[in-house]
From TrEMBL, chain A:
Membrane topology: Multi-pass membrane protein
Source organism of the structure: Pedobacter kyungheensis
Record-given protein name: NADH-quinone oxidoreductase subunit H
Enzyme class, UniProt record, top EC level: translocase
Catalyzed reaction equations: a quinone + NADH + 5 H(+)(in) = a quinol + NAD(+) + 4 H(+)(out)
Gene assigned in the entry: nuoH
TrEMBL record, chain B:
Catalysed reaction, written as an equation: a quinone + NADH + 5 H(+)(in) = a quinol + NAD(+) + 4 H(+)(out)
GO cellular component, one term: plasma membrane
Complexes and interactors: NDH-1 is composed of 14 different subunits. Subunits NuoA, H, J, K, L, M, N constitute the membrane sector of the complex.
E.C. number(s) listed in UniProt: 7.1.1.-
Keyword Repeat: yes
Cofactors named for this entry: [4Fe-4S] cluster
Protein's name in the database: NADH-quinone oxidoreductase subunit I
Organism (species): Pedobacter kyungheensis
GO term, biological process aspect, one: aerobic respiration
Residues involved in [4Fe-4S] cluster 2 binding: 84, 120, 123, 126
Keywords, ordered alphabetically: 4Fe-4S, Cell membrane, Iron, Iron-sulfur, Membrane, Metal-binding, NAD, Quinone, Repeat, Translocase, Ubiquinone
Domain 4Fe-4S ferredoxin-type: 65-94, 111-140
Enzyme class: translocase
Length: 345, 167
């Protein structure tokens, strides 16, 4: 392995890491702004023009807050919990193809940190690890509310992971690959998977709402009943980490949704752009399109949050086990039959 | 029992239909409603910069009035303090000296007059009790401050500006 390769990947990792942190940071701002606009309010507008510095102010506030570690808590796990949550949220971005290879200074750079051939499985693995951050934090707090909500979170995430995995299987039947790079490459132009797998996309989207603990599935952190849920005992930047991890999760699942179903960096007319704009700007434009899709999905997450009330716990389980899982299995069967018929004739 | 008002509404709890159990149509409808609010005018008034217009009988900060010659009307009779349900008003009376005739309308005046704005409930009873029409709650909203002692307003803040200064 030559040094140039390592430096190239290192720069890419740092850039992607920085971008995902900045996007998560501004998601907190966007969340408050979107909430305000949907409720005919203004939202934060004091820090800087249009409140653009609000996330910085929030960050400073989080750092300045007194840090409390409960005496009865398991001190080591209490500290590991938020770190694990943030780590698992961040490493999901490694396999996402951000764009086609781009020509920079006479060198073709791949805009994907690593193209492992089981990219989809990697994402799923990382997402399932994320629940440990919540579980450990809730358990180490030594608080009934935290423990209850951590158990809620774990059972919710495990239930919805099944439906999510099943909805992906139907997609994999079509794509015949687990590599995210190839899945995106197959969706050239407007040949997006969502046209072939609308039901699968719907199931995947609902499940990713549950996986990121977003409304209407935000039972693990419901403010009113569980006073913040698993992070009741957390303060200062540890609380900030948990809140931040949720937004990074949102960013990653938006990216995954855009990659798997909405063609990633593909867009109609990309061949014309590629022919006219050259090998540097055309891929970067594709990346910009990809980020546009991600931003739309993040907005969609927020839009849903400020529309739908929270599910009751039994409704949540009913929907997951009796609704989405049978639906996902039916989707697999239908997809399989259709593929078999197409191959036969 | 028969309803007397005819306003009773019998609610039937039917099991959800298939479409209702799918949640999606209702969700789409709800999201249509919220997105329509994205384009509506916000109801917020940006307070310190923009002030909403108050009704004419709004009761704000007190002001101690002067008469047409610029003399203070208050005679320190204490009726406002007596009427105050929150006991926010205190005053110390003093006798007017001959050379102070241009300052105070009557022989007795309030040497100090203090209203604790944290106690005041802005009921307007002092205004009603005053026989000399000396106190009115016609000012703006009492501004916020950091220390409790800064909310005790003395004559320096309460007495209205002299006539020539007003012009």
């Amino acid at each position: 392995m030559d040094t140039g390769f390592i430096i190239e990947k290192f720069i890419l990792v740092v850039v992607i890491f920085a971008i995902s942190l900045v996007i998560a940071m501004y998601s907190t701002y966007a969340e408050r702004k979107v909430a305000a606009f949907l409720q005919d309010r203004l939202g934060p507008d004091r820090a800087g023009p249009f409140g653009i510095l609000q996330p910085l102010a929030d960050g400073v506030k989080m750092f300045m807050k007194e840090e409390i570690i409960p005496t009865t808590s398991n001190r080591w796990l209490f500290i590991v919990g938020p770190g694990l949550a943030l780590l698992c949220a961040c490493i999901g971005t490694a396999v996402i193809p951000w764009g086609t290879p781009v020509l920079i200074a006479g060198k073709t750079v791949s805009l994907q940190v690593t193209d492992i051939n089981v990219g989809v499985l990697y994402i799923f693995g990382v997402v399932s690890l994320g629940v440990y951050g919540v579980m450990i934090g809730g358990w180490a707090s030594n608080n009934k509310y935290s423990l209850l909500s951590a158990i809620r979170a774990a059972s919710q995430n495990i239930s919805y992971e099944i439906a999510m995995g099943l909805s992906i299987i139907a997609l994999l039947l079509m794509t015949n690959t687990l590599s995210l790079k190839e899945i995106v490459a197959q969706q050239h132009g407007l040949n997006w998977n969502v046209w072939y797998q609308p039901l699968g996309f719907l199931i995947f989207m609902v499940c990713s709402f549950a996986e990121t603990n977003r409304a209407p599935f935000d039972l693990p952190e419901c403010e009113t009943e569980l006073i913040g849920g698993y992070h009741t005992e957390y303060s200062s930047m540890k609380l900030g980490f948990y809140l931040f991890a949720e937004y990074i999760n949102m960013f990653v699942s938006s990216a995954v949704m855009a990659t798997l179903y909405f063609g990633g960096y593909n867009y109609p007319g990309m061949d014309w752009i590629a022919a006219h704009w050259g090998p540097t700007w055309a891929p970067l434009f594709g990346t910009a399109i990809f980020f546009g899709k991600i931003v739309f999905f993040i907005f969609f997450f927020m839009w849903v949050r400020w529309t739908i009330p929270r599910f009751r716990y039994d409704q949540l389980m009913n929907l997951g086990w009796k609704g989405l899982i049978p639906l996902a299995i039916a989707n697999i069967i239908i997809t399989g039959i259709v593929i078999a018929i197409i191959e036969k004739f | 029992m028969e309803s007397l008002s005819n306003k009773k509404k019998v609610l039937e709890q039917k099991p959800l239909s298939f479409m209702e159990r799918m949640y999606l149509p209702a969700i789409v409808k709800g999201m249509g409603i919220t997105i329509s609010h994205l384009f509506k005018k916000e109801a917020t008034v940006r307070y310190p910069e923009v002030e909403r217009e108050f009704s004419t009988n709004f009761r704000g900060m007190h002001s101690l009035k002067r008469d047409e010659n610029g003399k203070e009307r208050c005679t320190a009779c204490g009726l406002c303090a007596l009427s105050c349900p929150a006991e926010a008003i205190t005053m110390i009376a003093a006798e007017r000296k001959p050379e102070e005739k241009h300052l105070y309308r009557e022989e007795k005046y309030a040497a100090t007059y203090e209203i604790n704005m944290l106690r005041c409930i802005f009921c307007g009873l002092c205004e009603e009790a005053c026989p000399k029409e000396a106190i009115y709650l016609d000012g703006p909203i009492v501004p916020a401050d950091y220390l409790r002692k800064d909310f005790i307003y003395g004559k320096d803040k309460l007495v209205e500006a002299p006539l020539e200064m007003k012009k």
